Each structure stands twice: as C-alpha cells, then as structure tokens.
Amino acid sequence: MAKVREVILGVGGGIAAYKSCDLLRRLQDHGYQITVVPTPASLNFVGAATWEALSHRPVTSQVWERVDEVRHISLAKRADALIIAPATADLIARIAIGRADDLLTNLVLAIDVPTLLVPAMHPQMWKDPATQENVEKLRARGFTVMEPAVGRLTGDDFGQGRFPDTQIIISEFESVTGSIKDLLGKRVLVTAGGTREAIDPVRFIGNRSSGRQGAAIARAARDRGADVKMIFANPQLSKEEINELSGIDLLQVETAKEMHTALEREFPKSDLLVMSAAVADARPLQYSEGKIKKGDLHDISLVENPDILKSIAKLRDKQIVIAFAAETNNDLDVAQAKRLAKGANILYLNNVSDGAIFGSLDTEGFILTSNGAPIPVPTTSKDTLAELLLDQALDQLG
Predict the structure, then answer these.
(1) Can you give the pLDDT at residue 327?
(2) 40 and 95 both lie in a single domain
(3) pTM of the entire structure?
(4) Is there a single domain that holds both residue 14 and residue 156?
(5) Which of the two residues, 261 and 387, has the higher pLDDT score?
(6) pLDDT score of 192
(7) With bands split at pLDDT 50, 70 and 90, how would you rate the model's confidence at 70?
(8) How far apart, in Å, are the Cα atoms of 62 and each of 66, 383, 390?
(9) Residues 165 and 208 in one domain
C-alpha cells in the first residue's frame, strides 16, 4: 500500500490560483497534510496569509526565506507527493527547461516523488506549439500532466484551458500516487487518551496515556478511506498533532462514564471499534465540591468503574473490535484470556514496565487474534502499529 501523507501544493501565478484553496481543503478532508509553495507571481492572486491559515503551516515562495532550513531540500525530503495547481504556461516552460528561479522550481529539481501538474490558462496559450512541446517533455520525464477542462474562462472566452473540478484532480492524484483506499465506505470508531475521575475541583485520578496511539490509528483509517470518529479523553498532544487530525470527527470526553455514554451512542453505527483509550478502573465514591485541604487527604474511598469494552461488545452486531492491554509483563496466556473475556476480535498487548510506551512515539508488544499464533511487534512507530492493526481488522471484516 502506498503511504502518502505529506503533500506539497505548488501554486502558479494564474487567476485559477483561488480555486486551489478549495483543492487544499478537500485534500485535507482526504487525510493529506499540505504544505503550500506558491510562486511569487501567484501571491498577487492569493496571499501567503490565506495559505498559512488554511494549511496551518508556514508559507515561503523564495529560496532566500528560512535559509537556515535549506527549504527546497528539507521540503523535498519530507514530501510524499507534489501537485502543482494551477500550472501556468510560464511555470510549465520554466520547469521544462530546468529553471530554478524561485522556491517552487528549485523544489521540482530537488524532489523525487510522484508529481501531478494541473494546467490552467487561456485556450490559445494551451494550444500553442511551445506549450504543447513543453508538456510532452514533462510527460516524457515522468510527470503526470492533466488535460485542462473545457469551459468558460475569464471574460467571454470559452475553450480548453479551464481549471478542472477539484474532485477530478483528487481522483487523478490518487491514481498517480497509488493510494489504496481499502477502508472506503467503512465507519471506524476510535477511543483514545486517558479518562480522568475528579476528586475535587483541582485533583483527579488518571493515567499516563497521551492519546498518540489512538490518534495514529484514526489517521491511518482516515488515510485508507474510512469515515472516522474519535472519542478523545484528555489528549496530551501538541497543536501540530491535533491539526493532523483534520477530516476526523472528534468527540471530547473526560470521564469513563462520559466515554461509555458516547460509545453506546456511536458503536451501533460503526463497522470497527478500536478501543485504545486507557480507562480509569475506579473513581472516587464521593466528589468534593470544594478543594480538599492537604491535611484532610487521608484516604479516598473508591468505587469500580464498569468494564466499558465488555459492556459495549455485548451490543455487537457484525462489528470488529480491537482492544488494548497495557501490562507490566508479556503473559500471552493472560492476554488471550482477557481478549476472550472482553469480547474483542483482536488485542494488542504492550509492556508498559518502567513507564514505557505511554507518551512515546514508539511501541512494542504482541497482536493477539482468534485466527492464529501471537504476532510479535518489535520496537516500531505507533503509525506502523496502526497499519498492522488495521490490516488484521480488514482480514476479519472481509
């Protein structure tokens, strides 16, 4: 499966530049992370502030900006794909002869990823032999150059040269990049983070779960075409990590009870539940409306929270359920028994001894299913584990 997440959106200096604002938003809806690189001329049509507001990322157009980053190289290394839309006659000509006189054309020379050009210009300019020759040169080099749409342009002119519809561009882009949407049409429900049970207005019982693993699963499911909803309990993520969840429906909760209520409402509408949240096992028997004085904190009476997953699994029709077990050992027999007791199809066992896993970018453990022997997961990223778990779920979804 082609893993495409980081996309550069190059913007040429044509009137159709404003249409790329919608293209950016729809790409985000499809789960792509976008960095915009406009040509200096294009800023006459759409300014850098607009692109930064839409992409939530800094925007530069010249190699002399952010020189310490060597921006054309750093962007090229991070990108999975490049779209240039609109590609004007001038920009196509400069790329065809290898010019490097702004950040975008420098980037084109430095990058080695699937590249899609979306021409938009007056019909006479598109038909001109020079433009047609340049387009053929680029296609021969491996660029994908779309045919412009036919329709009305600025003024009363009509013909081939119009910026294509956004969805047509995205379909072509996903064909070029080989993105596989094997969860298209599926509804995935993910719980993430750690619940908190209030003791008084300032104190609570909680855990160390950051929500990163659940967020990774939600992003992976979204990128594979699923309609994703995430019930998020007290996420400990950066602003950038939150921004990467675009296109995912987020439901914020705090306590185990709130999560249980949300699950009862959303689970019947889902095809797959990934229960990655760390739910507090107990809550205070009584909540103090006022802050408890330090000298009065002698003991806290607790009452056990309900087993949310076990309860929700009983509502299952044909849904697949993935559970998580955070333990301080790798007792596979105990974990397998836990999977069966909770009614989960798949369980990921991770060893959290000495504070491992929680808050980290990496994980290690075992995937347990009803279909065979435990699958060891050596130290790997939480993004990779997300893909492995979704692969297992797809096997069982059929």
Answers:
(1) 73
(2) yes
(3) 0.62
(4) yes
(5) 261
(6) 94
(7) confident
(8) 9, 33, 41
(9) no
Active site residue 330: no
- For 266, the domain range is 187-397
Out of 130, 148, 177, pick the residue that ends a domain: 177
DSSP 271: S
In a domain, 182, yes or no: no
Statement: residue 246 has pLDDT above 60: yes
Task: Identify whether residues 217 and 261 lie together within a single domain.
Answer: yes
Q: Yes or no: say if 307 and 219 are a contact pair by the CB < 8 Å rule.
A: no
Task: Please give the pLDDT value at position 68.
Answer: 80
Mean pLDDT, range 318-323, rounded to an integer: 93
pLDDT greater at residue 236 or residue 232: 232
The residue from 207, 234, 345, 350 that is catalytic is: 207
φ, ψ at 279 (rounded to 5°): -95, 130
Amino acid code (one letter) for 22 = D
Residues in the chain: 398
Q: Can you list the positions of beta strands (E) in the chain?
A: 6-11, 33-38, 81-87, 115-119, 144-145, 149-152, 158-162, 187-193, 197-198, 204-205, 227-233, 249-253, 272-275, 282-284, 302-304, 320-327, 346-351, 362-369, 375-381
- CATH number, domain of 288, equals 3.40.50.10300
Residue 48 lies in a domain: yes
Average pLDDT over residues 148-164: 87
Query: Is residue 43 in some structural domain?
Result: yes
| Helix/strand/coil for 5 | coil
